[in-house]
Write a structure and sequence with these properties.
mainly alpha, about 60 residues, about 70% helix, elongated
């Protein structure tokens, strides 16, 4: 079973990568962006519930 630290680390990595991908498709493919945005919200809720401060990590801020 993964540790809490491992879950947090993996979620932060996914959150960061997802934001990079979102920024690259925002104006080119709105449907893909919207799909990614749903995952972005899920990750954001998860990280906040785990006590992660997203002030420095969140570049999308939607």
């Amino acid at each position: 079973m993964p540790s809490a630290a491992g879950i947090i680390r993996d979620s932060i990595i996914e959150f960061s990568r997802l934001q990079n991908w979102m920024q690259s498709v925002k104006d080119k493919d709105p449907a893909t962006y919207q799909s990614m945005h749903e995952r972005y919200i899920e990750l954001k809720v998860t990280l906040v519930s785990l006590g992660v401060n997203l002030t420095e990590l969140d570049r999308i801020k939607d």
